[in-house]
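Tokens for Heat shock transcription factor. Go.
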Amino acid sequence: MKLTMGSEFVVKLFQILEEPENYPYISWALDGRSFIISNIQGFSEFVLEKHFRHKNWSSFVRQLNKYDFYKVRRDEERIGERGQWEYKNKYFQRGRPELLDKIRRKKAPSEGSGSGSTSPKQIESGMVYQSHVLNAVRTISKYLQTVVEDINDIKKYIYHERMRIASKINVLFVKGDVPGSEWICSALKIPNYSLTIVEESSDVRNVMRWKYDVVVLYASTSGCSKSVSRIRSLDASVPIVLVVDEEFKNEYMNILGIRVSEALLMPLDPKDLVDAVNRHGSQRGLEGG
């Protein structure tokens, strides 16, 4: 009989019991639910040697125990002779080979599912999972490092932009009611000035909502007071550099009395105008910062 179900040891044991030549040494019990080894010495020498390639009776018994066979305790008078051993497993029955597949090898304590025990498959699975986690952490770490570097670059850019903007002097030039102010516009159009130009002092209200470091006013003596008052009503502290014609130099002191920071008389070197704007505009920037 060729069996394909069950473990190799169990199948081989079943086949041994089916072979008549082994009956002097091993046979089924009368009910067919257990088997009896009647001659241990002969069983070891002939059956074990032939089928298991060893004569070790103790090794055979250990195999039985591993597959959950247990020794049946019976009265010696019923056995008839000393030295006979009977073993049983509820799935090991005469004429029932289909049950052999249900006979499983018992797990050793280290193979159990108790706390602290881990199978090789579980270890391998855990190592794979750990590897995935580490790779994910590395990827996230690199991404965060890139984000931090980008943020630092943005901060540097914003800082330099602020420094660049802060280094500029915001100048408001009010042309006033005197013709020929083109040269002043040209003098004020330099890189470190942020220049805003209005035609009349009446237009100041539309632009004074922005903060200026200095106001340059080019006006006649008669229009100075009104223009300055209009500017002061919108910003009481902004420096005002007034440019007037030389013919009004006798009224210079009166001009200073109308709350201007500095008055420059024509004809005027453009450099002197720029120096005045830098002087008052830079001071305003420091006070505002």
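The chain has a mean pLDDT of 80.
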